[in-house]
Design goal:
- The protein has helices at 16-45, 52-94.
- With 95 residues, the protein is mainly alpha-helical.
- The chain has one domain.
- Helix 1 packs antiparallel against helix 2 (52-94).
- The model has no long low-confidence stretch (mean pLDDT 80).
């Protein structure tokens, strides 16, 4: 899931880090709502009470949200690595 900054004309919209952090925050909230609420229901009732279809859909939602958050963290790490390496290379070549 990719979300752009909803405020038009805002300078943060053009920064990759801001977009990454916004997506990561939304992904973390989805993990919280999809994963944690079903775990709380399971612990509270001692069994799965939402039915077979909900079980399949929620497991799919858990996998998608956890994978997307992991991929976002990986993309952020790659981006920060590239920025660091390019800054070091640029400063060593021109100074």
């Amino acid at each position: 899931m990719i979300i752009d900054n909803p405020l038009p004309g805002n300078e943060l919209r053009h920064k990759r880090v801001s977009v990454f952090l916004l997506n990561l925050a939304v992904g973390d909230l989805m993990v919280c709502f999809v994963t944690m609420t079903t775990e709380i229901l399971f612990v509270a009732f001692g069994e799965w009470v939402l039915g077979a279809v909900a079980c399949k859909l929620i497991v799919y939602g858990q996998i998608v949200t956890l994978a997307s958050t992991t991929f976002l963290l990986t993309a952020m790490s790659i981006d920060r690595y590239q920025v660091t390496v390019l800054t070091v290379l640029h400063s060593s070549l021109f100074h």
